[in-house]
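Ops channel
N.P.: pipeline sanity check, posting one input/output pair.
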């Protein structure tokens, strides 16, 4: 079946599949952990039960999404040793320490306080429970910090020297490794994307329940209205911030990875007197041209150089063997940008509805919010594809090629494990996702039950059977 297949391509597809599947969950839980901390803080401050109801509603969904994110992330670590052992050997001295820090600090912080956050409200008191919520939220953000630092180093490597005998990257300055040139921009852009992803999922769920009870608004709980209002505030505030962060991240990419920007823009030819912004086209990499191009003259130079007549180099200045796959980068970038502006449009629409006093009774707005619920997940995947495919043909940009990073495996071995991953992932995580959607399909109730109250029975661990409690109605001895 895989006799004619390329082992390198299959290894890339396998890692792309697993990392894409995994990234959906952290993109949701990073924002959701912070949202839960805010809800818990508002409950302690205002003593308004709608915030407690919302916390209890979303914490169950968070627990499932967090668990699936952890399990799907473990698989990627193994792939560094199975499919990408050469990369692990050569880059390990640099990236090994930050990845270990992520486990020892961020993940331990999340895992250590997760149980208290889920079940400890009545056991440790409100102050310690709030600290646990903040610890989990901080742990998810810290985890993003370390992982994005490693990933950014692969794009803009710094603080290292090459060992000429072993070919290994040896750290010379860990501050430069961690805070490499693209890291601050990628961190801000990615974390903001996670917050927007959560906001649109929360807003979509609230809008769904508002639509279901649009003819009986008295049946809509205060928690549902608050949930929609908070989500729309996030959309209105953070969507324009994200567009701004994306712009400055693009300028940083132009400085350090110009070939990626050329692929994003579809610039096969250099433009000495101002480059157009192509809205659409079909990249023809074999012929080095953009077919059926539709563009706005000189706008790309204005965006990237802040000058209509600024010259921009094209892919004709990059050797063919060093060019990324233009078609994938070109279309993924446009999907991400289109969704970003759609988010901005919905945020502005919600502000108009709020001003008109129709935030909770405008069915068209609510239908748009439901439609946009998964938009953040699609946008982060499109952005991730733009970033990672745009780095090709290198794993460590400019220093280590992807073809030189792969393990010496046959295509049959990689292909068979890829098929196994696809089957298992869709079975296991498909069931988990279905259950999350089932939880979202019911609205938050007044006096929403706790995690332990929602369970059918006590948890059984290591084969032990809990003692059945009986309640006496008469004093002992009678």
């Amino acid at each position: 079946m895989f006799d004619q297949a390329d082992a390198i391509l299959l290894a890339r597809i396998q890692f792309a599949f697993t990392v894409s599947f995994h990234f959906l969950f952290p993109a949701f839980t990073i924002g959701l952990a912070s949202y839960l901390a805010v809800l818990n803080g508002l409950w302690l401050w205002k003593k308004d039960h709608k915030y407690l109801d919302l916390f209890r509603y979303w914490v169950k969904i968070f627990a499932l999404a967090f668990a699936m994110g952890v399990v799907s992330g473990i698989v990627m670590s193994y792939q560094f040793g199975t499919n990408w052992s050469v990369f692990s050997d050569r880059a390990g001295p640099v990236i090994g320490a930050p990845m270990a820090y992520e486990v020892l600090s961020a993940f331990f912080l999340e895992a250590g306080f997760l149980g208290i956050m889920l079940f400890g409200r009545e056991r440790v008191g409100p102050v310690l429970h709030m600290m646990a919520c903040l610890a989990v939220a901080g742990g998810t953000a810290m985890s993003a910090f370390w992982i994005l630092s490693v990933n950014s180093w692969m794009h803009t490597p710094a603080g290292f020297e090459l060992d000429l005998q072993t070919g290994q990257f040896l750290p010379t300055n860990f501050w430069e490794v961690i805070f490499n040139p693209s890291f601050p921009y990628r961190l801000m852009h990615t974390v903001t994307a996670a917050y927007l992803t959560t906001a649109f999922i929360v807003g979509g769920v609230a809008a769904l329940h508002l639509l279901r009870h649009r003819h009986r608004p008295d049946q809509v709980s205060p928690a549902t209205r608050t949930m929609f209002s908070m989500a729309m505030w996030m959309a209105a505030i953070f969507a324009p911030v994200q567009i701004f962060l994306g712009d400055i991240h693009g300028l940083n990419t132009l400085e350090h990875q110009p070939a990626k920007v050329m692929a994003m823009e579809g610039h096969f030819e250099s433009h000495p007197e101002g480059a157009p912004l192509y809205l659409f086209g079909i990249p023809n990499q074999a012929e080095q041209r953009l077919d059926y191009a539709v563009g706005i003259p000189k706008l790309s130079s204005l965006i990237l150089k802040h000058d209509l007549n600024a010259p921009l180099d094209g892919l004709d200045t990059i050797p063919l063997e060093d060019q990324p796959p233009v078609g994938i980068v070109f279309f993924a970038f446009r999907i991400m940008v289109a969704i970003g502006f759609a988010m901005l449009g919905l945020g502005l629409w919600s502000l108009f509805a709020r001003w008109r006093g129709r935030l909770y009774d405008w069915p068209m707005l609510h239908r748009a919010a439901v439609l946009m619920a998964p938009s953040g997940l699609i946008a982060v995947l499109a952005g991730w594809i733009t970033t990672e495919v745009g780095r090709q043909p290198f794993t460590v940009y400019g220093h280590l090629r992807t073809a030189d990073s792969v393990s010496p495996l046959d295509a049959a071995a990689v292909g068979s494990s890829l098929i196994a991953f696809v089957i298992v992932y869709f079975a296991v995580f498909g069931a988990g996702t279905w259950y999350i959607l089932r939880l979202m399909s019911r609205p938050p109730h007044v006096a929403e039950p706790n995690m332990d109250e929602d369970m059918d029975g006590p948890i059984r661990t290591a084969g032990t059977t809990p003692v059945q409690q009986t309640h006496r109605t008469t004093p002992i001895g009678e």
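N.P.: looks fine end to end. The CA atoms of residues 264 and 330 lie 5 Å apart.
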